[in-house]
Amino acid sequence: MQVNQNSSSCNNGHSNVKPVITPQPRALFAVSSLGLGHATRSLVLIHAFLAQGYQITIVSTGNALAFLRLELADCTAIDWQDRQDYPPLERGMGWQFYRYLIQDLIKTWSLIQKEHREFEKNSTEYDFIFSDGRYGFYSKWTPSFILSHQIAFVPPKGLKEISWLSDHLNAAALKKFDQIFIPDYPCPSNNLSGNLSHTPVLNDAENQYIGILSSYPHLNLKQDIDYLFVISGYLKEHKDTFVKSLLQQARQLAGIKVFILGDAEANEADYQSFEEENLTIYPLASGLLRQELFNRAKCIISRAGYTTVMDLVEHGKQALLIPTPNQTEQEYLGYYLHSLNHFISKEQTQAFDLCQALDEIQKTKIFTPPWQTNESVSRIRESMDRLIYKNFFTIIIPAHNEEKELGRTLEAILAQRYPSDRFEIIIVENGSLDATWAIAEQFVATHQSTRSIQLLRSALGVSNAKNAGLAQAAAHSEWVIFCDADTQFAPHALHQINTWINRHGTMALSVGTTRVLPAKPAGSYAWLWFSFYDFMHRLTRSSYAIQVARTPIARGIGFDPELSFSEDLVFIRECRRYGRFFFIPSDQVSTSVRRFEAKGYFRQGFRWLIEALMPVRMKKNRSYDVVR
User: Please, what are the domains in the chain?
Assistant: First the structure.
């Protein structure tokens, strides 16, 4: 064996090779606009991944999108998408409430299906997807995560008997994600969300209590604002009159008062008559102003949104919580936290007395969190890393008289949307009589400055070629992919293989294959036969065009040099002694139909069957009729 070309990841000590440039990772955050809380708590995670060098796409709409644009106005690593959100549930009054509820639930389900269908087409462009309240943003081939504290629902009056149905439907939607992050603490007797998050319906789903998330940093500022009113909430029909009532009552309070309306579209002229020397009104506060106001406040008056509760706990603030009418989640949270004496909760009614409610706050006992936001973010990142992790792949391509196919195969591998420093290409020419070597040599000379590429020459025979490639695989290689020189990868092949392996527990897997499609152009007859071959490979745990194996296992087993065909079947059988066989239903791998066109589908299939059933001793040292 002779090593003719090598790159920086090889072991020959070359020092004149340029370093591989790692592409910028990409992520998508889908953020619900049903209240600013989804945006504010997602913000802390967005900042964490921006600090890690991610290019981030943010999908949202309305006030949430406006808020995030203001907070991240100076960041150039963000793409924005304004996309319709679900309708606000639990609106209306009286019998209209139930009519709207049915109507909005149907519309929500329809929008979830639509956004998933449309998004799935481009989902492999991202390293991961993170959703906060947008149920359609998950993917078959990209790690998908969701943040939710509302696992169980508090049913409106009259619908309590069917609450089990809504809980299980919600759980079914959440289970489509790889991991459900619950922003609360696991202890049943020391938590913030009560029955909303601590429910048995997710016992069989991947979920983790990660603790609170707050986008407010701890600032060393004097607490000189006596009362900070943060009145956002997404049900505007319950908002305007009540805000003006609060403003009127707040004018009677001694001290400094500040109102944040949480509405980017609020008309400041409607509230100018309430402003005075010690009462200031902001339609929307973002950036440093938002952080300063919260840190300076002694007491908070707010809706009973869960994100607000987390902010209060993060900073140890006393608060008066006022649930939005008919918003059963907020009503439950207010009742639950009031019963534990952590906060005071009062209903929004015409008889609401602000001064009396504030007098009760001094009797509350502040909730002491087991850990805070920084630790929560670390737990999320640690949990995500397992699924985001980019395995290092060694792609070994035996090439014998492949001048017609090799160039296309190599160019397809270069087009992979997978970090270029996380895979290497090893081409092993063995006994070619055509221009295979020259084509491979030119390819390596052109691309080895930015890629890890090796070109080897081995003795004649596919087993010798594969063994030669294995011997030169990088020491840190985790998975090796053996593929024929006429087997081509679409751009997302490695991304799909990597995601599937990470999702299915890498330590239990040893060897497998992928779905293989006929290379275009191919008729319906070819597609039918290839579907049959995929079924048989899955059933019999075998493969011809492509094998994926754990590198340490593959190194220890190798290929029998006396076999010129069916060597992959023997290899797979031996690898299965050390772990499970797997089949990846990818749509990114295709192979030439030249064998079938030359021999006929039925005849070639029958020949493969006979070769598979033939005892190994009868296969050794037999020649193989190569079709080119």
Answer: 26-214 (3.40.50), 225-368 (3.40.50.2000), 389-619 (3.90.550.10)
